[in-house]
């Protein structure tokens, strides 16, 4: 599985992609990640990637040509089943199911926008337009990093014990993961639930299942089809 990221800041994610599970997976050859400088796909001496919006208005819009040249160049090099995704706050919400679906691909090309947005004609050259949440970032790079992480850890050979992926929030049901504890057994009067110290695996599984649903009802009632007001709100 390989990830090709198109950005005007190709060095921005180097640190993140060099450490932890992702860094190890790259070193082991389970995944490849390449960040491409969008300016390498311009054809003017100033390597311009943006321009003023038609119709007027504040800010600049990212031009269509560099993105399309880059997509075509990468698609020419990377064979197999590849999907191209534009990251933007106007996209549909990215979910765990997308990560699972994309993890089965040979390649994912991620386009990061900046400025006020991307020329809408870029959409004619991509498969999907995706947002990571209902907030506006200064660019798509952080969104691309989130998608690489979520997708890579669903790729076989990336997370050592796949049962740790299976116990994730959202893995097989629209609900959050169960609470976890580690040593010490008591910290400032806060204790670990007895059941986790019991060694009774059936009881522990039952407790985790119940706690996972409780946490979901509290923090994400929308996942259970409840109105957010139905859960405990903790605004502020
Ligand atoms: N670019 C700016 N905001 C974004 C978001 N919420 N998701 C994806 N890309 C973005």
Core attributes:
236 residues; alpha/beta; five-stranded parallel beta sheet; two-stranded antiparallel ribbon; 6 helices; 9 strands; elongated; binds adenine
How many β-strand stretches?
9
What is the arithmetic mean of pLDDT? 94
Portion in beta strands: 15-25%
Report strand order across the widest sheet.
2-1-6-5-7
Instruction: Report Rg.
Output: 21 Å
- Main beta-sheet annotation: 5 strands, parallel
Report how far the terminal alpha carbons are from each other. Answer: 41 Å
Bound small molecules, by name, code or SMILES, are: adenine
Structural class by helix and strand composition? alpha/beta
List the helices and strands and how they pair.
Blueprint: E1 2-7, H1 20-27, E2 32-37, E3 50-51, E4 61-62, H2 64-77, E5 82-93, H3 96-102, E6 107-112, E7 128-131, H4 141-152, H5 162-166, E8 186-187, E9 190-191, H6 201-219
Parallel strand pairs: 1-2, 1-6, 5-6, 5-7
Antiparallel strand pairs: 3-4, 8-9
Helix pairs in contact: 3-4
Task: Describe what you observe in this structure.
The chain has 236 residues and is α/β, with parallel strands linked by helices. Helix content is 28%, strand content 18%. It contains six helices and nine strands, in the order βαβββαβαββααββα. It has helices spanning 20-27, 64-77, 96-102, 141-152, 162-166, 201-219; strands spanning 2-7, 32-37, 50-51, 61-62, 82-93, 107-112, 128-131, 186-187, 190-191. The strands form three sheets. Strands 2-1-6-5-7 form a five-stranded parallel sheet, with helices on both faces. The structure holds adenine.
């Amino acid at each position: 599985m390989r990830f090709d990221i198109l950005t005007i800041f190709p060095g921005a994610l180097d640190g993140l992609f060099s450490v932890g599970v992702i860094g190890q997976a790259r070193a082991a050859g389970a995944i490849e990640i390449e960040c491409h400088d969008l300016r390498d796909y311009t054809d003017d001496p100033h390597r311009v990637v943006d321009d003023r919006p038609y119709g007027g208005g504040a800010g600049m819009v990212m031009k269509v040509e560099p993105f399309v040249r880059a997509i075509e160049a990468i698609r020419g090099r990377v064979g197999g089943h590849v999907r191209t995704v534009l990251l933007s706050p106007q996209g549909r919400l990215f979910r765990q199911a997308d990560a699972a679906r994309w993890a089965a691909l040979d390649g994912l090309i991620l386009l990061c926008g900046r400025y006020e947005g991307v020329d809408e004609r870029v959409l004619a050259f991509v498969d999907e337009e995706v947002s990571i949440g209902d907030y506006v970032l200064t660019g798509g790079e952080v969104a691309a990093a989130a998608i690489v992480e979520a997708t890579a850890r669903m790729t076989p050979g990336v997370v050592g014990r796949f049962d740790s992926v299976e116990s994730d929030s959202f893995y097989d049901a629209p609900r959050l993961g169960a609470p976890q504890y580690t040593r010490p057994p008591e910290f400032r009067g806060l204790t670990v639930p007895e059941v986790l110290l019991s060694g009774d695996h059936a009881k522990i599984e039952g407790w985790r299942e119940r706690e996972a649903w409780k946490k979901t009802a509290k923090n994400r009632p929308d996942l259970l089809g409840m109105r957010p007001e139905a859960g405990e709100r903790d605004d502020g």
